Amino acid sequence: MSNKFKILCFLFLIAIISTAIINLNTGFLSLNINDFFSESINSQIAEIRVNRVLVMLLAGISIPTSGFLMQEYFQNPLAGPDILGITSVASLSVAFYIFFSSDILLPDFLQNSFLSLSAIIGSLLLMLVLLSMSNKFQDKSYLIIFGFLVSAFAGAIVSMLQLYAENQSLKNYILWSFGANNMVTRNQIIVLSILVLIGSFICFKTIKPLIGNSLGSSYAQSFGVNLQHLKLLIIVASSLLSASITAFLGPILFIGIIVPHFCRLIYNPAKLWQQWILNMFLGILMMLLFSIVAEKTQIPLNVISSIFGIPVILMMLLKHNKV
Fold this sequence. Notes:
Blueprint: H1 3-24, H2 34-37, H3 43-74, H4 86-100, H5 108-134, H6 142-164, H7 167-177, H8 186-213, H9 217-222, H10 227-249, H11 255-266, H12 272-297, H13 301-322
Helix pairs in contact: 1-12, 3-8, 3-10, 3-11, 3-12, 4-5, 4-6, 4-7, 4-10, 5-8, 5-10, 8-10, 11-12
């Protein structure tokens, strides 16, 4: 482990701790430390802010890890859960659930679990389609075009559902799509933590095979890599991580693309273990910063991620075109 990597990790940890503290002190009311550790008038507000920091931490781990897996597997810096349509299909699955389960009375814990499950199933089905299409396209960049078409189709269906939805269902979907990180409860965080933990463990199992895969499929097979097994692990991990965040926070776009890009700029892109760690650190830092901006400006979280992400991706395209 190089000194540069250790220094980067240390700097990220300092920045994450600092932004987390700022996050806890960002809001309409000023809180003191007793509000976080004892019963007081503002204890509920303190709990909401702690939940906000925790869910940003989980999102910062999940979204960049999902994008990192996709980019390393497809060997394409523009591959990601949102570009390939995974987020859109997860959103469509959540829309179906919200619009057609409004008359079913369930406890909040179960309802949120089913919400997450619907997003995961939808994204998993799309990933199976994407990976089967990858065998038919000689140029894997065509999968990005396919992903855009899927996103457009999913968006059209969601618009049609919104047109005929009842007022309350429409309101619930709009609030969900804004990425309202203040609405995530402690029970939701428990469910989300379990999903992120499972997805991260599967990601851990893919790093070594991905190192062999990056050198070519022939070398990977001679190295003992089971490419079909690797493909399955990538499907499950990427879908689980991106869909679980989408279910609880709405579609947080572009973060899964730009964070791996920045990490490759600041450290050796061939060292995948270190890249994965840096992706998580930078992802957590970026999501905490976005959360602060969202609280200060009252702009939805997914709008902020798009405003930041679109120019970065445009610069990536221009840079790639020059090369």
